[in-house]
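User: My advisor, Dr. K., asked me to get a structural model of this assembly before our group meeting. I'm new to this, so sorry if the format is off. These are the inputs:
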Amino acid sequence: MPSYKLIYFDVRGLAEVSRFLFYLSSTPFQDYEVSDAEWLTLQGKTPYGKLPILEVDGKTLAQSFAIARYLAREFGFAGNSPFECALVDALGDQFKDYWGELFPYFATCAGIKEFGNSNILRREVGEPARDKFFTMLERVAKENGSNGHLVGDSLTWIDLTVADHITTLNNFSDGFVDDRFPAVLAVREKVMNDPRLTEYLAKRPKRYF
Amino acid sequence: MPAYKFYYFPIRGLGEAPRQIFALAGVEFENIGISDEKWETFQKTETPFGQMPLLEVDGKQIPQSFAICRYIASQHGLAGKTPFEAAWVDALADQYKDFNNDFKKFFYVQLGFEDGDKEEYKKEHGIPARDKFFPLIVKQIKDNGSGLLVGSSATWVDILIAEAVSRIAENVPGFFESYPEIIAHQQKVHSIPQIKKWIEAR
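Assistant: The format is fine. Below is the predicted structure of the whole assembly, which you can bring to the meeting.
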């Protein structure tokens, strides 16, 4: 078993999906939290000046989705066929496109960077981005059989990514991902009720995003 | 062998890298160009996410250019020789995407797709984006040691970046003057026989 060290800030952010993958597979790992002070010296030593990074037996991987996909493949959460893996990847890419649209709203709510008044941004940026992305996801979930998964019949890293992201959106604005999206909310329910995650979900720090 | 149909506008754009991956893999595919006139209907009736490129594999669809690239590449040994190498290929591609999201603010102006002062946009967006991303690629090439980005043989991210570099170089003269390693990489990838043949015939 390789030794794993996941290095990130004290947030769920882009690394929570990878944390979930470790707990789902009962794989030991070091969940290393970087302080703002430490980041000043660490940043120049990372491949792209960003976090998260993952160390696997001391060798470094960068980019949150490359890390998530790598772990998902190792632990069996990437999709049950090459075709399913590609569908999961496509949804991941679509998420990233959506993320780019959402960013001014997200960054303002998270206190990372201010793009304006958060109420105005919610209406003008957050809601349109949400409606466009979650309408598509709802259709995908329904076409997949409304079985609590976005692709295939078992848990994949895109289910985990979407589930955790909904937590963040609802933290920023209660009920933001509403009952127009029942099949997607069912995906989240399945993740949040997975018995392999119960202990971690109970003990993890409460993080706004 | 499944039947592959690849749908995109009849331009290079996001379609060229997937096409070159098919070419390098030696896999036959139907290269379908959807004209602007046909696009409106096609978009509503055929596309899962309202976008192209789109790959059809025995009638089932995969959207998103990177998902398509990775799918074809990983079936044909062009995605890295180990899971760790594959993850590095993915990371480089994601980093390229971040670069392109910044760079295209200048590039669309340079190409005339959007209005703006070309020199100003080049200074504000083009050059900073280049100088943030390409030193990382130069370092990757040097550390890797084979003249390619990951491992000892071409991967889909080599094709992706070589295509981006050639398109930029064609439209912004002298843009990579201080990046000889980047030009060398692009030339190395484009002299791979199957890719060279594809480029000559397109």
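One thing worth pointing out at the meeting: Chain B touches chain A at residues 48-49, 57, 60, 62-68, 70-71, 74-75, 83-84, 86-88, 90-91, 94-95, 97, 101, 136 (CB under 8 Å).

User: Perfect, thanks a lot.
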